[in-house]
Amino acid sequence: MRNKQTLLRNLPAVDKLLQSAPFLDLAADIPHALQLEACQATVECLRREILGRPEAFTAADLDIDSVAQRAAEQARQLHRPNLRPVINATGTLLHTNLGRAPLSDAALQAVERVSRGYSNLEFDLDNGGRGHRYSHVEDLLCKLTGAEAATVVNNNAGAVLLALTALAKGREAIVSRGELVEIGGAFRIPEVMAAGGVQLREVGATNKTHLRDYRAAIGEQTGLLLKVHTSNYRIVGFSEAVPAADLVGLAAEHGLPVLEDLGSGMLIDLTEYGLPHEPTVAETVAAGVDLVTFSGDKLLGGPQAGLIVGRREAIDKIRRHPMARAMRIDKMTLAALEATLRPYLDRERALREIPVLRMLAESAGNLRRRCRKLAATLKKTCGGHVTVEILAEVSRVGGGALPLTELPGWALALSLPDGSVEALAARLRQGEPPLVGRIQNDQLLLNPRTVLPEEEPLLCRCLAAALNAPDH
Ligand SMILES: *Cc1c(COP(=O)(O)O)cnc(C)c1O
């Protein structure tokens, strides 16, 4: 008991800690409020540890220097940004939890150029009057898709909601039972429709819907025909869906519009890189679909955005809708989006410059070479601590796109003598920057497909730090 009291008395006071050498070093960088919080928390934590296990302490543990070091480390943690870069070694290209598409250099530069000062966001430089924010991407989107008009909102979920409500509020939208998609969390087609004041009219069966099913459902109440890309699942086997062109023909007989939610949407055909054939946005527009919506940050490889292209009249209805204002895209996103779209005017350039497309196109041979190089470096820096193998490993597109597609490649497989890769994975997540891989059969797999080449030295440093940590 006396020992406890003595230890507690020896705890440095908060104001002494704030005056100590480690804190004088931090003073210029870290706000005083965070320094104070860190000192208070550290002292409180030590107090509880002393009350719990006094025998674990010596007087030296409580000297001002060692307590100040601990508190300063905590202050640095408190000051670290919450949202920060992570190295994605999962091999999943559009990992929604890791921020989906990484942006191209051009997109990043555009954000910086446009948002550091002022811009012509809604200012017409020719006549000095008011301009339109959507004009910066509309022509590009029309060129790339063949559409008459285009607009953009915050994300594709918003685009679908807005398009549904602008075209069919108070009426019915006819959709196949095979396409009542749920896209992660709260985005479900039936619920989006309800939110937009549109009645759902389901037709067909889960596995098969025919044109005659749509025809039989058309009536007084019909507002539009909706087609939804089954992004994150596939109905395989005895199944059938109606092609967009056939729906367009039927809709035209009744003077109805067709809306297609393409989900990821692709501006260029990527079958040569092992992706299944999917209609591109241009093909969907050419089929006569009135409005096509797709995401900016899926396979397009840009910032989060919802792109809407189609007929001028339908796009005008969307733009004029009051809800459009609530979903309007900001200048940074718009800058990144324009810079992402421009290279698509030249397919080869898009494949070279847009990170998601580069990752998609990287050959298995190249991935294997990168694995060999990384393995050699790891052997030098982390030698005795870890066994490194190179395994065949597939990548997935992710982000709810192309669920059955597997991109063949290679990965590093790390195993530890004591088998505890969970602990290694946890240390890597806590590292700076955090590194995220995938655990499989007691091995930690690191897939270089989603690691930017310039991140490789950093990846090796992260591994060395985690493997050579003292508690390891
Ligand atoms: C991903 C997806 C959405 C949602 O798009 P966000 O840009 O994430 O809002 C909507 N519909 C389909 C079919 C999708 O695949």
UniProtKB/TrEMBL annotation:
Domain of life where this protein originates: Bacteria
Subcellular location: Cytoplasm
GO molecular function per UniProt: L-seryl-tRNA(Sec) selenium transferase activity
GO biological process, alphabetically ordered: conversion of seryl-tRNAsec to selenocys-tRNAsec; selenocysteine incorporation
Cellular component, GO, one term: cytoplasm
Its EC number(s): 2.9.1.1
L-seryl-tRNA selenium transferase N-terminal domain residues: 8-47
Name of the protein: L-seryl-tRNA(Sec) selenium transferase
Organism: Geothermobacter hydrogeniphilus
Underlying gene: selA
